[in-house]
Amino acid sequence: MSDKPRLMIVDDEPIVGKRLKRLFEKEGFAVETFTRGSAAIDELKKKHFDIVITDLMMGVVDGMKVLEFAKANCPDIRVIIITGFGKKETAAEACHKGAFAFIIKPFKIDELREIVRRACSALRKPPTG
Amino acid sequence: MNLKIWHKMIIGISIPALITLIGGFFTYAYINDVKLRHGFVEIADDLRERVLEVRRNEKNFLLHKTDEYYRYSKDATDTLNKSLNNISPEIVAQAGNDEFLLLRDSLRTYSDLIHALLKNYRQEDLSVEKVREEGRKLEAFVKAENHDRELSPNFVLDLRRLEKNYMLFRDKTSFDRLNDALAGFNNLAPFCLYCVQYTTAINNLISVYNKITGMENDLQGIGNTLEETTDRIARSERQKVNAFFSSTQRLLLIALILLCTFGPLLVYQTASYIVTPIKRLADITRKISQGDMTLRAPIKEHDETYTLAVSFNRMLDHLQLTRSSLEKSLELLHEKHVEVEKRASLGFLVSGVAHELNNPLNNISLTAETMKEDLNELSAEELKEHIQDIISQSERAKHIIEDLLDFAGARKSTAMEKTDIINVLAESINLVANQLKVSHIHLKKDIHKTPVFIRGNQSKLEEIFVNIMVNAIHAMKGSGDLSICAGPDGQGKFITVEISDTGCGIPGKDLKNIFEPFYTTKQSGGGTGLGLAVTHSLVEKHSGDINVRSKVGEGTTFTVRFPLYEETD
């Protein structure tokens, strides 16, 4: 098992998964992408992830459920929420449930990269890359 | 004729009254005439009676030949004459002048004749006495025998017997015998003075008798004339009266038939003449009250109904004008309602679509940034893939915006055309897809796979479905199932679209008002209250129907039905 920090990306938009996987692999993460919340939760049950980047609106099992499960499963996990629906209530709810950050689509790569870096340093386990 | 109703009524009443009046006048005149005629008959009868009286006295006079009977006879003729003179000239003229003239002349002659006859009777008496005297002288002479031998007393006695017989019978036989005997007598004693005197006396008597007989015959002839004339007058008067009665009877019968035939006809004509314009007006008002505002009361007569019809028509003009302007306002208002509702739906949809738009935008910017950063590292293949992603995501964004614009009415067509309702339903679902996602609503679809055509307008139909679905999303407040079933019915006449939610449901008391404008169960700010009213009217414009059933706490189902497209449409 590699010592690279493990990053999970959940978004029903496959393009988001593809682009972020390439980006964060370059950053030195071990990246896995999912387009469905349920599949992501199943994977979380099996493996440990350090950081989860999840979309909020995704059909039946949405980002909020992924956040809840991830935090319940592993309190140390850093969950970053990205969403096209930038509602204050949702952001507040996500923070309340332990989200590390709340990013609104469309976002800048640098912005996300910065947040992920901060999450990573918060883990005190800098990525190797 | 332009008569007022009250003129018509007066005419209607006057005509029968006039007819009755004329009838009455004629009857009065007839009765008068009848009375007059009856008077004639009475007078004629009276005259006849008098004449008969005259004849009776005439017979007596001729029989007895005395002064006394002459007086009776004269009295009777005088009475008759007086009666004749008493008849008024008008009646004489009416009954015929000639007859009366004849009557008068005859009576005058008759009167003279009676008088003459009386004188002759006296003459007769004298002659008879003379014959008897001469007879006695002759008898005495023959007895004294101072006569010719041939002249015997028997012969004279025989002669005297013949003389008595003649005086008694006065007929031809006794006259002939006397005459023969006298001829013989004269031959026997041609120069006997007594014989000559006796013969002369007898001849004188014969001539008196002859004269009297002639006069008596004349008198009887005139008497007959009198009788016949009065008879004729009486008969003719009676005939005239009878003819008059039968003609009157005929006239009355004709009048009765005419009255029976034309009376009711006249009454009917008058009544209908009065009632027709009123009836016409009533008919037209009934038709107008049934909804045909284009009708107008006919203006034909210049009676009271004319004013009524004119005022009525003017009122109708005003009414129609007001109604059409009201209809226009209503239409305008309705259009505004539709617009308002559409904007409300649009506003709701935009919030969903705007967020939806963030996804392709994000994909584009993410891909573009990646390309910028890793331009040198990317293989040509990867680069192409990136560009392709940008293109496809731009397309996606374009579609999202197009859908919204379509719904907002960028597509102006309001034409009713052959439209695939399955496609419309899919587009409508697309429009609310984001809201479903945001509201955590799970969509269950059971929609007919192949196109189903109806006659309709795409954007209006979209509006119907979006409105119902938006309503359902609101009702479910955050989570639930939205089920959409669509498919043609068994007979292939209708397509039924059923949209069910698992929302709060609608109480029975609200259910019946749900399609009323401005009726809303949402809290203030939740909705315009127009959505379902507009939906209802749009469905009706598509000749369809919409029904709702609901159970509080379980959910609501809207069922919309449209007739399938027919080629003959």
Spatial shape of chain A: globular
Oligomer: heterodimer
Instruction: State the distance separating the first and last CA atoms of chain A.
Output: 16 Å
Largest interface (C-beta under 8 Å): A-B, 20 and 22 residues
From N to C, what is the helix and strand string of chain B? HHHHHHHHHEHEEHEEHHEE
Please tell me how large the radius of gyration of chain B is: 70 Å
Q: Gyration radius of chain A, to the nearest Å? A: 13 Å
Order of helices and strands of chain A: EHEHEHEHEH
| Percentage of residues assigned to helices of chain B | over 70%
Q: What is the name of the CATH class of the largest domain in chain B?
A: Alpha Beta
User: Which regions of chain B are unreliable across 5 or more consecutive residues at pLDDT < 50?
Assistant: none
Structural class of chain A: alpha/beta
**And the CATH topology of the largest domain in chain B?**
Heat Shock Protein 90
Helix run count of chain A: 5
Number of domains of chain A: 1
Kindly, what is the distance between the CA atoms of the first and last residues of chain B, rounded to a whole number of angstroms? 53 Å
- CATH architecture type of chain A: 3-Layer(aba) Sandwich
